Amino acid sequence: MTRLGDAGRHMIRNAELWGGLFWLGLGAFVAWTGRDLGLGQLSEPGPGFAFFWIGILMCGLALSVIGQAVALGGPALASLWDGTRWRKVLVVIGLLLVYATGFEAIGFIPCTLALLLILMWFIDPVRWWVALTIAVVSTVGIWAAMSKWLKIQLPAGILSGILG
Predict the structure, then answer these.
(1) Please, which pLDDT band fits residue 155 given cuts at 50, 70 and 90?
(2) 48 and 15 share a domain?
(3) Model confidence pLDDT, tens digit, residues 13-39
(4) Are both 42 and 66 inside the same structural domain?
(5) For residue 125, which phi and psi values (nearest 5 degrees)?
(6) Low-confidence winner among 9-18, 100-109, 131-140, 142-151 (lowest mean pLDDT)
(7) 141 contacts 92 by C-beta, under 8 angstroms
(8) What is the pTM of this model?
(9) Final residue of a domain: which of 42, 61, 81?
(10) What are the tens digits of pLDDT across the range 51-88?
(11) Going by fewer Cβ within 10 Å, which terminus of the chain is more open, N or C?
(12) Rounded to the nearest 10 degrees, what angle do helices 128-143 and 108-118 cross at?
């Protein structure tokens, strides 16, 4: 057995390399799935046409990240977790679980407003008027885009009589 030199050990711990490999694998999966769905012709694209080319683009970008990681190095994997505020991470995960649980019954608008306000007031505090403005504008904007323009039905929940 040969032992890895310092350069080899550094490469194995390179966060950029592992991130690039992850995205390369995901891009290959997306391209493969698109190919299986059928590419069609350029004049008449099949259902997998966009997936295939998006996967190819992902692979290309991932290869550029991998190339830079090999040539220039990158931060160690352990350094990615330095300074992580684990308590806040766990609170956000809990909030997202509560959001997903109440989403259907309570509805998109009240759940999303509450989630955004809690995140902006307590998790990563901003001024109250900034939080309120961003929460209302983004929630109403996303609701309008999804339900009115894209015709995607979002749960109305407690606002079902108002949103009709």
Answers:
(1) confident
(2) yes
(3) 788 888 999 999 999 999 999 999 998
(4) yes
(5) -60, 135
(6) 9-18
(7) no
(8) 0.57
(9) 81
(10) 999 999 999 999 999 999 888 887 776 677 777 788 89
(11) N
(12) 150
Do the beta carbons of residue 48 and residue 18 sit within 8 Å? no
DSSP per position, the chain: -PPP-HHHHHHHTBHHHHHHHHHHHHHHHHHHHHHHH--B-SSSB-TTHHHHHHHHHHHHHHHHHHHHHHHH---BGGGGGTT--HHHHHHHHHHHHHHHHHHHHH-HHHHHHHHHHHIIIIIS---HHHHHHHHHHHHHHHHIIIIIIS-PPPP-GGGHHHH-
Residue 157 falls inside a structural domain? yes
Is the same domain home to 66 and 117?
no
Mean pLDDT of 114-134: 93
1 Cα distance to chain centroid: 41
Q: Rounded CA gap, 20 and 154, in Å?
A: 35
142: containing domain:
86-163
Report if residue 1 sits inside a domain: no
